[in-house]
Structures are given as C-alpha cells and as structure tokens.
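Shape is hard to put into words, and the shape of a protein is harder than most. The fold becomes a row of whole numbers, each drawn from a learned catalogue of backbone shapes. The outcome of that step, for a single protein, is printed below.
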Amino acid sequence: MAEKKTTEVVLPVLEGEEPWTAEEVKEQREELVEELARLEKRIEESEAELAALLSGGNDGAGRDPADVGSSNFERDQEMSLAHNVREMADQLRLALTLFDNGEYGYCEVCGNPIGKGRLQVFPRATLCVTCKQREERR
C-alpha cells in the first residue's frame, strides 16, 4: 500500500514579515472553515426570517400605509443582509479552494503576496492592499 505523502503548506509573506509557522497555517485554515460554518448558519437563519416576512403578505390591502412601508423596509433590509452574508460565504469558499490548491495568500490581480498580517485579520482576502484600494477607487 502506498504511503500518503503529507505536504507542508507554505503561505507567502510580504518582505519583512515572519514566515508562517505550521501551527499558524493550520489555524488559518481552521479559521476559514469555522467562519464559513458560522456564515452558513446565518444564511439559514436569514432565509427563515425572510420567508417569514414574505409569508406575511405584501399587498397592503386594508393595512395602514405606514405599516406597509415599515414591512417593506424590514423585508428589503433583511434581503440586503442575506445578500451580504452570501457574498462573504462565497469569498470564504473561494479562499478555502485557493488554500487547498496552494494558491492562498497570493493576490488574484497582481499575483503578489497579500501579506500575513492582512490574512490574519481578514482571512478571506483575495486581493493585496494595493489592488483592493485600486478596486475601491473605481
């Protein structure tokens, strides 16, 4: 029976940063997995809340216009929050895929290291600070 080779994951760092330790790499991946699980739970809760709001009816017949407006605002807000949580979950799934493919920690745009500090604070980052700033200016 062939032995399964275990390869140590090496994550890139910026110049002047300390290299990732094996323990830090393990913790980083665990953080991605745990955060994705938390978000998936929030998505389920948000979808249930939204379903409850939508099943309450939205035709407004016989209801006070202020109540209808309040209900519409609440529904729109819940839909926006649900969308944002889904986007964050998608970013985490992408980060995990990149991690497992050995591409985690490299900027999707320029290919340079994102930086250990940035990834520890924002594990789902797929852009370096420079490219992210450029994207936000557009």
Summary: The longest helix spans residues 65-100. The helical segments are 22-55, 65-100, 116-121, 129-137.
